[in-house]
Structure formats: structure tokens, C-alpha cells
Amino acid sequence: MFRDPPGGRKAVAVWSIGVAVYFVAVIFRTSLGVAGLEAADRFRVGASALSTFSLLQLLVYAGMQVPVGLLVDRLGTKKVLTLGAVLFTSGQIGFALSPTYGTALAARALLGCGDAMTFISVLRLGTRWFPARRGPLMAQLAGLVGMAGNLVSTLVLAPVLHEVGWVPAFAGSAVAGLAVLVPLVLFLRDHPEGHEPPPVRRDGGAGFVRRQIRDSWREPGTRLGLWVHFTTQFPAMVFLLLWGMPFLVEDQGLARTTAAGLLTLVVASHMGFGLVYGQLIGRRQSARIPLALGTVTLTAALWGSVLAYPGARAPMWLLTTLCVVLGTCGPASMIGFDFARPANPAERQGTASGITNMGGFLASMTTLLAVGLLLDATGDDYRIAFSSVFFVEFLGITQILRLRGRALTAERNRLQSAPLPGRPGAPAPAATSA
To answer: What gap in Å lies between CA 374 and CA 411, rounded to an integer?
Structure first.
């Protein structure tokens, strides 16, 4: 029987190695967000072609989520994280040296493949090394560290890019990928001694894959987790990953340094709200749906206020408020995992997390493409282009409202039917509580 791990200093040390890999992956993932204008000049492409960089990267990322979840469940965290670090480092080097648009696209796809292997692995480390009651907080902390990687892109990579140029900046940043590989290979362990998970049934590759996906998807909590992630994450990701800098500079007329400061504000807000959301959900599970829907509503209201503001440009106080609110999107997206986690047993955690993690990236992909196409079609009318955000949010909200009753009922039934912890036959805490 899988026993609740104790946590402690060793758990923090091992978890920190995994989080460091995720931190570097996010730096590489978001590096294009501060180099969008330079990329357009370097490869001589328009808005829709520029959005294809991020679109392809996210397409690979989203498409890899379920396979990566299956790999984590079957092979363990260390092997998957190591492969991911090798791939995203190779992709970053390739992007630095790419002479053409086509080769740069291939490099971003490779980067996205490696990046896809990091976050689910870090979530698994959290469930393997820390008690189940710490799950929401550890997930939020992992997301917070990831946003710190975004902060490095904005504060460090952006000025370096302007000072030393494209190739030195991107190739130099790839050294960070090599740096995290060493402790990963030498010191990371999948789980503490004496806390081995139940053995995975080895009934053939196809049978294992079908069973894991089928059983995870049948759980209403997994599906609700996907739609919560879908609806909450994408507004901030679209803004940070590609379109925030062009919107603030080209449409709102801000200086690049001012625009970079607002992007930094999104990241700082995410880091602050991540701790708040993690503590709230850890103490009060009933706060999950109100927090998720409240975040979506507030985000839509601020975007609507900016886009509908009379005149060509919104005032600085409104743009600042928008960026603060966008910072809540990441913490809210982590709520999706707090629905999927208790709905699935320990041996399905990777697969369920992969399904959930697809949500936000599918929404981000759709919106990135829509904004690029609408900008080209309307002659760079950002108001029309960013209106696509509302359609995606509306789709997500309808699905959350449709699934929340079933998911919460199933969760209550599981808790009521489970034996009390410590009694014979009691289920593993990680499988029954968030």
C-alpha cells in the first residue's frame, strides 16, 4: 500500500532539483515573448507567421501531455526529466543558430517537446515526496518558480538580447540547461526509501495506455480539471508568451522598457497570488470553483475595459490593473490539478495531470493563432484581435458549469465511502485528498 510520504529537508532538496529543471524550461519557453519583434525582423515574417512559433511550440507541448503522463507513470520522474532537459536545451541552441524560418520552427518544436516533460514530472515529485495535504501548496510553489523563469526572460534575457545580439543571447542561455542536468542525473530520486508506489501492471504497451487514459478520463474530476485549466491559464500565457510586448509597444505606444516593466508586473503578481491561492485551497477545498470562476470573470472584465476604452490608448493605471489581474491566471489554473489529483489513484497521477495540463495550452494555442490571423486580416487592429479571448473564456465557463456538480458529487462520495486513515484497508491519502 502506498504510504503518505513525510516530507522534510531531503524532500525539499530533491524537489528543488526538479523545480530547477522546470525553471530553466520556462526561461526557454518564454524567451520568444521578449524577442517577438526581433524574431519578426530576423526571419522577415508577419504577425501570423510569428504566432506560428509559439503555436507550434504549444501544439507540441499540448500533444505531448498525455504521452508524458503515461511515461511518468511507467518510467518514473528522473528518466523523463532527464530526457526533457536534453531536448529543450538542444531546442534552445538550435533556435539560436537557425539561419531560416523553417529551421527555427523545428527548433521551437524540439524545445516544446522537452518543455512538455517538466511540469508533470515536478507535480509527480511533489506527490511522491510530500504529504497529500501539502499537494495544493507544492503545486502552486512549482508554478511560482516557473513564473520566476518568466521573470528572468523579461529582466535578464531581454536586455542581453539588445546588447549582444540574437546568437550570443540565445546560445548563452542554453548553458543553464546543461547546468541543471548535472544535479538531476546525480542526485534526483523518484521517491523516498520505503515509500515505493504500487507496481504498475505490465500487460503490454497498448493495453496500459488505453487503460490509463480511459480510467483517468472517466473521472469527472479529471475532465473538470482540464476545463478549469483551459479557461484560466491562457489569457496570461498569450500575453506573456508572444502578444503582450507587441500590443503594449505598437498599439498602446509604450516604450519597450515600460512594456517590459508591465510584463514583469504580471509575473510578480503571479508569484504573489500563487502563495495566496495555494494556502486558501489547502485550507478550504470549497474555494476552488469560486476562485476559478472569479478569476475568469475579473480577467474578462479588465480585458473588456482596456479594449473598449475610449480613444486610441488606455491609461497607464488601467494597463497596470490588467497586468496585476493577469497575474492571477496562473495560480487559478493550478486549481485544475486539485480536481484531478483526488479523483485518481497514485498510479494514475501522471496521466491525469497530463490530461489536465493540456487544457490551458490548447486554449493558448487557439488564441495565439486567432490573434495572429485577426491582426493580419484587420491591419493590426488589436481590439478586434484580442476580442477572441472572450470566446475562448465563454466556452470554458460553460464546460466548468456543466461538470462541476458531477465532479464534486463524485469527490464527496469517495470521501464518504473511504475508510478512515490508519484503519485496515484505508486508501492512500494521495489518492483520496487534494
So the answer is: 42
Show the CA angle centred on residue 251, arms to residues 249 and 253, nearest 5°. Answer: 50
What single-letter amino acid sits at 90? S
Tell me, yes or no, whether 433 lies in a domain: no
Lookup: cell for 289 = 470553483
Q: What is the CATH number of the domain that holds 330?
A: 1.20.1250.20
CA distance 129 to 313: 49
CA 251 – CA 45 distance, rounded (Å): 19
| Nearest C-alpha neighbor of 356 from the set 398, 407, 390, 394 | 407
Total structural domains in the chain?
1
For residue 311, is it within any domain? yes
- Give CA separation, 163 vs 44, 160, 241, 304, in Å: 21, 5, 21, 36
Q: What is the 3-state secondary structure (H, E, C) of the chain?
A: CCCCCCCCHHHHHHHHHHHHHHHHHHHHHHHHHHCHHHHHHHHCCCHHHHHHHHHHHHHHHHHHHHHHHHHHHHHCHHHHHHHHHHHHHHHHHHHHHCCCHHHHHHHHHHHHHHHCCCHHHHHHHHHHHCCHHHHHHHHHHHHHHHHHHHHHHHHHHHHHHHHHCHHHHHHHHCHHHHHHHHHHHHHCCCCCCCCCCCCCCCCCHHHHHHHHHHHHHHCHHHHHHHHHHHHHHHHHHHHHHHHHHHHHHHHCCCCHHHHHHHHHHHHHHHHHHHHHHHHHHHHCHHHHHHHHHHHHHHHHHHHHHHHCCCCCCCCHHHHHHHHHHHCCHHHHHCHHHHHHHHHCCHHHHHHHHHHHHHHHHHHHHHHHHHHHHHHHHHCCCHHHHHCHHHHHHHHHHHHHHHHHHHHHHHHHHHHHHCCCCCCCCCCCHHHHCC
pLDDT mean by block of 10 residues, the chain; 434 residues: 68 91 92 81 84 81 88 89 95 92 92 92 86 78 82 83 89 92 91 68 66 91 96 93 89 91 89 86 88 97 94 93 96 92 84 90 89 91 94 97 93 72 36 30
Which residue in 421, 410, 363, 413 sits closest to 388, CA to CA?
363
- Measured CA to CA, the distance from residue 141 to residue 373 in angstroms comes to 35
User: Does any domain span residue 408?
Assistant: yes
Report the C-alpha gap between 400 and 406 in whole angstroms: 10
Domain of residue 299, residue span = 9-187+205-418
CB 336 within 8 A of CB 189: no
Looking at the domain assignment, is residue 423 inside a domain? no
**What's the one-letter identity of residue 48?**
S
